[in-house]
UniProtKB/TrEMBL annotation:
<comment type="similarity">
    <text>Belongs to the glycosyltransferase 20 family.</text>
</comment>
<dbReference type="GO" id="GO:0005992">
    <property type="term" value="P:trehalose biosynthetic process"/>
</dbReference>
<protein>
    <submittedName>
        <fullName>Alpha,alpha-trehalose-phosphate synthase</fullName>
    </submittedName>
</protein>
<dbReference type="Pfam" id="PF00982">
    <property type="entry name" value="Glyco_transf_20"/>
</dbReference>
<dbReference type="GO" id="GO:0003825">
    <property type="term" value="F:alpha,alpha-trehalose-phosphate synthase (UDP-forming) activity"/>
</dbReference>
<dbReference type="InterPro" id="IPR001830">
    <property type="entry name" value="Glyco_trans_20"/>
</dbReference>
Length: 463
């Protein structure tokens, strides 16, 4: 049995306090079991790229990282990844920047990553590449003679063909994907968009899960990511979780709480969410002094202009709505610009009557699953979820909404806040089962098994 080699833009190693996301925890567990390695960018910048690798081992997890030049970071990371592919993959071609220097920087960095990486791969190792930053890396590895099985998992949506073709050199990018054995998508919708492109733009052929183009075949599957359910439950029992839970209880008194937890990103639909909440407050005067929205949104990707714009706009909106509706003893929105660690988040989720998760487009959205996991099964809150989040495909018992339609979201908020206990329990029990069974370990095991059992390089696709 070979090792597992995980590759992602950034490497996430175990921390002393164990405060980490579910994805990192799951991949670390897999690496520990397989004696494998996690490879990526160190997050550091150096004057000149050397390709020299720094190794580290923490709690049985080995990592290997390289430093990049400032120009690499600007063109590859802040450029092609976050200014071109992220908006395009979230259907925002109005925000996508198509600079040639971004594209060449992206290809250069993928090549640079492949140089030290290919030397570390041994025969029999399974290679797992994560996310849109690294799409062309399989081609680079193949050029170095790597014949191992390589899988790619896309955490974001895959956009419809009509949008993808707005990307110059789109075909050049997608062609490189045929050097993978397996591609994993979060939902059937993203997979269908990919297949549509292959069939209609490339002229490839599709046979069940297999896609062929110019003599190369890959297997494309749906494999939705989950949360680390057990670990999440444990986090809710820590002192920090209990302490925040007490503070929230005291500060809420009789108020019903609605919670939103997101990275500050335009794809999360935060402006539309505040707008919907304002509609709710207008339509339901009885909610004044009875309801509060706690929105946690730590800034991310501050180097990209549009993120600053969204941040300014949210500051203005929350101030305006509070100014218009607040009373001396009540503020309708508590807008918090910092992150909380996982144990504190469990307390926030559990205290909330409603989890308001309304991205305009999201590969999956783990907050929706975390909210469900954190509820008291005897008195659970209600999940209001955007139909445009990948999570909606698995979470049909949530109140599904169109996040662009403020009146619809306002009505769903009202329904959630007035829902009888029996219905809340029914919906929650059904959602909980999915979140618990299809957790992050289930996802990781399934995806790695699919890569291992698939052999497209030999021209024979094992079933
Ligand atoms: P993200 O866009 O970062 O991830 P999401 O899945 O919602 O989105 O969150 C990932 C994690 O970050 C969750 O564990 C959550 O608790 C944490 N988090 C989010 N906001 C936070 C906050 N304000 N404070 C503290 N923690 C916060 C990308 C894709 C998603 C996909 C994931 C995993 O965009 O669609 O679900 O990868 O594949």
């Amino acid at each position: 049995m070979g090792r597992l080699i995980v590759v992602s833009n950034r490497v996430s190693m175990p921390t002393p306090d164990g405060a980490q996301g579910g994805l990192a925890v799951a991949l670390q567990a897999a690496l520990r079991e397989s004696g494998g390695l996690w490879f990526g960018w160190s997050g550091r910048e150096v004057d000149k790229f050397t390709g020299s690798v720094s190794f580290e081992e923490i709690s049985g997890v080995r990592s290997a990282v390289v430093d990049l030049e400032p120009q690499d970071v600007e063109e590859y990371y802040n450029g092609f990844a976050n200014r071109t592919l992220w908006p395009l993959f979230h259907y925002r071609i109005d925000l996508a920047k198509y600079n040639r220097s971004f594209g060449s920087g992206y290809e250069r960095v993928n090549k640079r990553f492949a140089e030290p990486l290919h030397v570390m791969i041994e025969p029999g190792d399974t290679v797992w590449i994560n996310d849109y930053h690294l799409i062309p890396i399989a081609s680079q590895l193949r050029e170095h003679g790597i014949r191992n099985k390589i899988g790619f998992f896309l955490h974001t949506p895959w956009p419809p063909t009509r949008l993808l073709v707005s990307l110059p050199y789109h075909e050049r990018l997608v062609r490189t994907m045929f050097d993978y054995d397996v591609l994993g998508f979060q939902t059937a919708e993203w997979l269908e968009s990919f297949l549509h492109y292959c069939q209609n733009e490339l002229g490839g052929t599709i046979d069940g899960e297999y896609v062929s183009f110019e003599g190369k075949t890959l297997r494309a599957v749906v494999c939705p990511i989950g949360i680390d359910f057990e670990n999440f439950l444990q986090a809710s029992k820590t002192d920090a979780a209990q302490a925040l839970s007490e503070r929230v209880k005291v500060s809420l008194r009789q108020l019903s709480m609605i919670v939103g937890v997101d990275r500050l990103d335009y794809s999360k639909g935060l402006e539309e969410r505040l707008n919907s909440y304002e509609h709710y407050l207008q339509k339901h005067p009885e909610s004044h002094r009875a309801v509060v929205l706690i929105q946690v949104a730590p800034p991310s990707r501050g180097e990209v202009e549009h993120y600053q714009h969204v941040r300014d706009h949210l500051n203005a909106m929350s101030g305006r709505i509070n100014g218009a509706f607040a009373e001396v003893d009540w503020t309708p929105i508590r807008y918090v610009n910092r992150g909380y660690n996982r144990d504190e988040l469990t307390a926030l989720y559990r205290a909330a009557r409603v989890g308001l998760v309304t991205p305009l487009r999201d590969g999956m959205n783990l907050v929706a699953k975390e909210y469900v996991a954190a509820q008291d099964p005897d008195d659970p809150g209600v999940l209001v979820l955007s139909r445009f989040a990948g999570a909606a495909a698995q979470m049909q018992e949530a109140l599904l909404v169109n996040p662009y339609a403020p009146e619809e979201v306002a009505d769903a908020l009202h329904k959630a806040l007035t829902m009888p206990l029996t219905e809340r329990k029914q919906r929650h029990a059904a959602l909980l089962e999915g979140v618990k069974n299809e957790d992050v370990h289930w996802w990781r095991e399934k995806f790695v098994r699919i890569i291992e059992e698939t052999d497209c390089r030999q021209g024979v696709a094992a079933q």
